């Protein structure tokens, strides 16, 4: 699991609809009254049906007492960064230190150009955002007059200020590799949105941010991870954030513990009072409770396997990939994608292992049965799909189908053909893989025995602990040995 240890914060993001402005204001004030932490507004100045986001934030700051306010995210091509820095500082002073800055490179190019923005390619927009961050940081930091001469923005003796009550954080809405690297190198936070990033994609994206932060000499935990989410409440569970409040809480707590998400912002419309009340009254406290319990009760081996080992290994591997790939961006992209896939798979397996231990504990406490535990075991990814367990280890195992064995053998062939020196490493991983399969069989046998005699729980717990010790060491070794060659050799997954 990748829990960066940040305190959890929750908020709401509202469309700045001009036609529903009274309801928008009422929902924002309700969020403040319900004790939420954040209110955000998307920033699309080219939309004639939207209120200007910065004007709206300023107006709401005067009508609220405690909630923090931020553009989610500000359109940099249409907001000169030096002026934006002054505006943010002014509003932070007037609101008593309640402003954060969400920034975006700009995505809808034609509407921006129609409003007077220069036409730029997507890479140029990212480069311009990089410079904009430097300008904003310089003007928000007390010091001598600033001189900055970039390709897109410049300062020629501008004086920083005014001094703000608190350090205004910069969060980026980022999805693609260059933006993720910019986030790791220069931002205080990351705020992607559901619909552009799925829960399954958060792990690989986090890995890219972590690698860039380490490469820049920063701790990955220095960057808060947020997520703009949306869904619908209902009696039946139908998918991610589609069902009762309990389902929402379970799924968001998993993202906090597995992917380090610590800021959850609910997207809702002007008529979303009911959803906002359920969010604040039912979901938020349940997520806080579940995460606090997991942080205090999960053993160190399970809670933090990625906090040191794989994040450091990933960062080292990415640096080596970039050094050896040189100017071949296509090769670099393939290698990085392979590295991120391996890390995401391993994160999923660690989460499954933690859940298996929880299921066994539920049996001990009488909240579940041996049959339920065995059903969970048989549905685990590592049991159903040997490719995910071994990632790049090629071995035929009696617990997998011929189809998956062929996948393994193809990946093995790719790696070994590209670098013969990997042979001994892959052979060790193959033997470890077979050993893990045997431990899974041991757990299954123990669970079968428990169906008839639940007094044999101790045997099952020992088998699960054996799996934990074996699997965590195996995953760590695999990351240490294979991340770098996967990137260097541009192994496509």
Description:
- With 493 residues, the chain is an alpha/beta fold.
- It has two domains: 289 residues, TIM Barrel (Alpha-Beta Barrel); 187 residues.
- It contains 18 helices and 13 strands.
- Helix 2 runs parallel beside helix 3 and helix 7 packs across helix 12.
- The longest helix is centred in the C-terminal third of the chain and has 36 residues.
Shape: globular
Q: How much helix is in the residues?
A: 55-70%
CATH class categorisation of the largest domain: Alpha Beta
The number of helices is 18
The assigned structural class equals alpha/beta
Number of strands: 13
Major sheet details: 9 strands, parallel
CATH topology of the largest domain: TIM Barrel
* % residues in beta strands: 5-15%
What is the number of independent domains?
A: 2
For the CA atoms, what is the radius of gyration? Answer: 25 Å
Strand order of the largest sheet: 3-2-1-13-10-9-8-5-4
Report the end-to-end length measured between terminal Cα atoms. Answer: 22 Å
List segments where confidence is low: pLDDT < 50 over at least 5 consecutive residues.
298-309, 383-408
CATH-wise, what's the superfamily of the largest domain? Luciferase-like domain
Mean of residue pLDDT values:
83
CATH architecture of the largest domain: Alpha-Beta Barrel
């Amino acid at each position: 699991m990748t829990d960066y240890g940040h305190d959890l914060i929750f908020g709401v993001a509202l469309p700045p609809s001009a036609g529903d402005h009274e309801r928008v204001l009422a929902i924002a004030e309700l969020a403040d009254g319900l004790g939420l932490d954040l209110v955000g507004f998307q920033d699309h100045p080219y939309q004639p049906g939207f209120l200007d986001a910065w004007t709206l934030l300023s107006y709401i700051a005067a009508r609220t007492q405690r909630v923090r306010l931020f553009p989610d995210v500000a359109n940099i091509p249409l907001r000169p960064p030096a002026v934006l820095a002054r505006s943010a500082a002014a509003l932070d002073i007037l609101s008593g230190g309640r402003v954060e800055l969400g920034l975006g490179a700009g995505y809808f190019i034609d509407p921006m150009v129609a409003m007077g923005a220069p036409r730029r390619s997507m890479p140029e927009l990212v480069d311009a955002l990089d410079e904009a961050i430097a300008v904003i940081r310089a003007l928000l930091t007390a010091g001598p007059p600033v001189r900055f001469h970039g390709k897109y923005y410049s300062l020629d003796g501008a004086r920083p200020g005014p001094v703000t009550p608190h350090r205004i954080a910069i969060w980026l809405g980022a999805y693609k590799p260059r933006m993720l690297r910019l986030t790791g190198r220069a931002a205080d936070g990351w705020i992607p949105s559901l619909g552009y990033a799925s829960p399954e994609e958060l792990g690989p994206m986090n890995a890219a941010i972590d690698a860039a932060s380490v490469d820049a000499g920063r701790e990955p935990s220095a960057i808060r991870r947020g997520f703009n989410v949306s869904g619908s409440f209902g009696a039946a569970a139908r998918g991610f954030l589609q069902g009762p409040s309990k389902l929402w809480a379970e799924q968001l707590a998993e993202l906090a513990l597995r992917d380090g998400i610590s800021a959850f912002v609910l997207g809702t419309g002007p008529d979303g009072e009911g959803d906002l009340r359920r969010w604040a009254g039912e979901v938020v406290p349940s997520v806080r409770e579940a995460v606090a319990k997991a942080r205090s009760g999960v053993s160190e081996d399970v809670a933090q396997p990625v906090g040191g080992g794989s994040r450091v290994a990933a960062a080292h591997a990415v640096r080596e990939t970039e050094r050896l790939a040189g100017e071949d961006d296509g090769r670099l992209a393939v290698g990085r994608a392979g590295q991120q896939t391996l890390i995401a798979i391993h994160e999923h397996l660690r989460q499954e292992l933690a859940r298996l231990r929880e299921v066994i504990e539920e049996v001990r406490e009488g909240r579940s049965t041996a049959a339920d535990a065995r059903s969970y075991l048989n549905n685990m990814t590592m049991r159903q799909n040997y490719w995910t367990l071994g990632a790049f280890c090629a071995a035929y195992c009696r617990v997998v189908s011929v189809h998956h064995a062929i996948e393994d053998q193809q990946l093995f062939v790719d790696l070994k053909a590209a670098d013969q020196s990997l042979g001994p490493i892959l052979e060790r991983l193959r033997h470890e893989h077979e050993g893990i399969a045997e431990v899974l069989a041991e757990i299954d046998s123990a669970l079968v025995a428990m169906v008839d005699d639940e007094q044999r729980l101790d045997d099952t717990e020992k088998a699960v602990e054996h799996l934990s010790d074996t699997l965590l060491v195996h995953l760590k070794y695999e990351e240490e040995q294979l991340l770098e060659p996967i990137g260097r050799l541009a192994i496509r997954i």
